[in-house]
Structure formats: C-alpha cells, structure tokens
Amino acid sequence: MAVLSGSAQDDTGMWMSASVTKKLSSKWSADAEIEYRMRDNISQTDRLSVGLGVGYKLMKGIKISADYTFIEDYKDAGNTVALLDFSDNASQYNVPSYTYWQQRHRFNMSVTGSLKLSKRWDVSLRERWQYTYRPSEDIYGTYNGQRRVIKTVDGKGENILRSRLTVSYDIKKSPIQPYVSCEVFTTDRIEKMRYMAGAEYDITKQHSVKLYYMYQKESGNDENSLQAIGIDYGYKF
C-alpha cells in the first residue's frame, strides 16, 4: 500500500479525438471514437480511450444513445512510501518515482433534446448517466533491481450524472459554427464544472473538424483545475 500526498493543482493539457459515424437508417446510427489526452503542460500522456456507441432518434429534436468506452489512464505516482513484503516480514521502503497504466470501463446512457431558437441560434440539453468501473489490480515497480508489487488498487464503481447545455450559432453562408457549453458533473454533490468554447468547421458533408478551449474546475478540498486545447475530427457516412 502506497501513501501519497495531494494538493491543489492547475494544469494545461491537449485533447485529440477522431470519430466515425454510420447512419444505419432514418432513426438509427452507430459510431466509434478514439481519443488521446495529454497533461502536465502538454508534456505527458494522460489517457488513451476507444469507444463504441449507438444512437436512436426518438422524435424530432430528441435523441437517445448508449455507448461503451475502454480507458487506459497513465498514472504518475511520484516518490512514495510503500509497504513491501520481501519475505516473511513487511517493511516500509522509499520507492523512487514510477508510472503505470490503469484500466477503466465506462458505460453511458444519454438523452439529448435540441431546440431551434431562431434561424441562426440553436440550443441543446444533454442528460447523461455515466457508470465507470475500475478493476482491482496490483501495480508493479522496481526496487533494488527487483520487480515488486508496490501498490494495490482496489476495484471501484462510480455513478455520475452529467448535464450539459450547449448554445450554437449558424453563421450565414459559412461552414463554421461557433458554440459554447457548460457541463455539470453530479453525484450526491457537484463534483466538477466544465466550460467549453469552440467552433465546428464542415470541410465537406462527410468531414468536419472541431477546435475548442476547455476549462474544468473540480470541487472538494483540493479544487484542481484544468484547461485544455482540443481538436476533434469527425467522418460521417
């Protein structure tokens, strides 16, 4: 078991993703997405993920969807004090900084309602139930040239409600559509707030690119914050 200390942190990252969406019928669609994130002032891998999902147009302006995402988080434990069992006795040792990959499985169920306020302005509200499961695993590190279990991560499941409001503007005779959004992550309290501002550019009817800025603030004792520049590529057929 490793003992780690935490404190409030402000970080800058970059998020990049690519997605493919297939229209199966007038109501059904399927999609796949891969994502890569960086942290520590865009100097370190944060996570890799791949997801699959389906969507169904319930009625005009209302869509429901479900998806699964497999996530690999890249963790940096830093210098730790670990309880290592080398033989018959367990003792504390100072373990040098080490990194490891941690898996997560995520399931989402979403309902999105869209409304056209005017010829140019659109607003949408997405309510998403998110369940994330982190399997238990032993984390290995090297101490005195020997590979040892230096940390055990317990299995854990978490439910969270994500509510996102988006307002977009359709510029006349332009393939660029700017937008802003605000998202609230809620359990029995507000866990974090995420704000985004960006624009979507339709290269063709099938290809599009989104560029955005994101700012995220976590609640709790440490109140960590993150800002990130993002780019998303989308292909529809």
Tags for this entry?
237 residues; mainly beta; 11-stranded mixed beta barrel; 14 strands; disordered N terminus
Topology:
Elements: E1 2-3, E2 10-23, E3 28-39, E4 44-59, E5 62-85, E6 90-116, E7 121-134, E8 137-143, E9 146-153, E10 156-169, E11 176-186, E12 190-202, E13 207-218, E14 225-236
Parallel strand pairs: 2-14
Antiparallel strand pairs: 1-5, 2-3, 3-4, 4-5, 5-6, 6-7, 7-10, 8-9, 10-11, 11-12, 12-13, 13-14
Plain-language structure description:
- The structure is a single chain.
- The protein is mainly β and 237 residues long.
- It has strands at 2-3, 10-23, 28-39, 44-59, 62-85, 90-116, 121-134, 137-143, 146-153, 156-169, 176-186, 190-202, 207-218, 225-236.
- The strands form 2 sheets. An 11-stranded mixed barrel has the order 2-3-4-5-6-7-10-11-12-13-14. A two-stranded antiparallel ribbon has the order 8-9.
- Strand 8 and strand 9 form a beta hairpin.
- It is globular.
- The N and C termini lie far apart (50 Å).
